[in-house]
Amino acid sequence: MSPSTPSTQVTRSQELYERALRVLPGGVSRNAVLRRPHPFYAVRGEGCYVTDIEGVRRIDFANNMCSLIHGHAHPAIVAAVVEQMERGTAFTFATEAEVLYAEHMCARAPGFEKIRFVNSGTEGVMTCLKAARAFTRRAKIAKTEGAYHGLYDYAEVSQTSNPANWGEADHPRSNPVVLGTPRGVLDDVVVIPFNDPERAVRILSEHAGELACVLIDPLPHRVGMMPATAPFIDALRRWTEKDGALLVFDEVITFRSEYAGAQAWYSARPDLTALGKMIGGGLPVGAIAGRADVMDVLNPLAEKVLFPHSGTFSANPLVMAAGKIAMELFDRDAVARLNALGDRARRQIADAIETAGFPACVTGAGSLFRIHMTPEPPATYREAYMDPRRTQLVKALLDHAFENGVMLINTCSGALSTAMTAREIDVLSDVLLAGFRKLKEMK
Ligand SMILES: Cc1ncc(COP(=O)(O)O)c(C=O)c1O
């Protein structure tokens, strides 16, 4: 069925949403799926297409918030999961699947000397921060303003800062996301600006000897999806090394960027890396990987266990089976092919913007892109911040794309999957061209 569905068929989603509202706050379990007037309900995914409950099929550039690297229901991943499922889904035993997958991941990136699997990106980031604290015996962490790292109290700080509360650029404020966040959490998080080595180092130096780690996403989505520059990463590496703090990369999204993750872009290497999303092959996952001596804080065989750590579903065999096959399929050739498709997508979007003559721009790298309603790419969170006008334009473009069979992430971002070809990219840029023309009329 075409995306422009008659209104009678929308009723099934509406009905379901009315029921959902009675039992789920706001009718959803994750805010990312909320759409107005109601969310859409998926019934099936095949490759790069998703069919909703009304029978409408769309190209999926959201890929469950960048987590599906091969699209939906890849036959080899399905077979691996079914095969494991028939033998049991969870045990109070270790499994061979976990060992095999750990070997694959440690062979992938030079800095991954040891790895431990958890259940989400949030948990991966939290485990990195706690491991850094246990290793350094220090409490504070530093992070870039506005960067999203999941739901851990400390990692959340400043994620939703706005012009009314973000403070001076020389000292961005530690603002909570959730009401009632303990004052101590805010005091223990140092906020630095993105891609501003001088300011960042100046702020960090005010906390010399107190920081367990500096947490950094090399391509932070909410900060504008501009890659961290080499001078910025080098400055953070030099400062942390001198100070005895650790450098932690959040590669929950960006690991898809290169065979060994976005850390391959830099000569500096992180001490720890948080992973998640695509490494689960479509199932819920997280991981922490890095230097063996740091990872050893998790070692339950140590004379003094510094960081006792467990999780009922950590390294679940279904996830290990799905993740391993997904990552094996995402070999060097597949990474190169997907990144070339990403270059093509960003180029064609930029062309559509130019053809339409609308003041927008596109950022991103590898297989990720984000469209901004500004003529120039934002350099920091403050520049990427969406005021009501930009929010309105983004919503209008998202609605237009959705009505024309293209599903994007709610910040007007997209993540490609290996199930895509140039054909889907052409549809994307054609739909966006018509969308930018519409936005021009709205102005
Ligand atoms: C960079 C980054 N880190 C961490 C997370 C948290 O991952 P999860 O949603 O699996 O908890 C996300 C989720 O979007 C993310 O984008």
Can you describe what's shown?
40% of the residues lie in helices and 14% in strands. The mean pLDDT is 96. The chain has a seven-stranded mixed beta sheet, with helices on both faces. It is globular. The longest helix is centred in the last third of the chain and has 25 residues. It is α/β, with parallel strands linked by helices and 443 residues long. The protein contains 15 helices and 14 strands. Helix 3 packs antiparallel against helix 11, helix 12 packs parallel to helix 15 and helix 14 crosses helix 15. The site of pyridoxal-5'-phosphate has 14 residues, from helix 5.
Topology:
Elements: H1 7-23, E1 42-46, E2 49-52, E3 57-60, H2 63-66, H3 75-86, H4 96-108, E4 114-118, H5 121-136, E5 140-144, H6 153-156, H7 183-187, E6 189-192, H8 197-205, E7 211-216, H9 230-243, E8 246-250, E9 272-276, E10 286-290, H10 292-295, H11 317-329, H12 332-356, E11 361-365, E12 368-372, H13 381-384, H14 388-403, E13 406-407, E14 413-415, H15 422-442
Parallel strand pairs: 3-13, 5-6, 5-7, 7-8, 8-9
Antiparallel strand pairs: 1-2, 2-3, 4-10, 9-10, 11-12, 12-14
Bound molecules: pyridoxal-5'-phosphate (PLP).
Work out the strand percent. 5-15%
| Total E-strand runs | 14
Can you summarize the main beta sheet? Answer: 7 strands, mixed
What is the CA-CA span between the terminal residues? 33 Å
Q: State Rg.
A: 22 Å
- What's the average pLDDT? 96
Helix fraction bin? 25-40%
Structural class: alpha/beta
> So how many helices?
15
- Extract low-pLDDT stretches: none
Small-molecule binders here are: pyridoxal-5'-phosphate
Query: Which strand order do you get reading across the main beta sheet?
Result: 4-10-9-8-7-5-6
Outline? globular
Give the SSE order as H and E letters: HEEEHHHEHEHHEHEHEEEHHHEEHHEEH
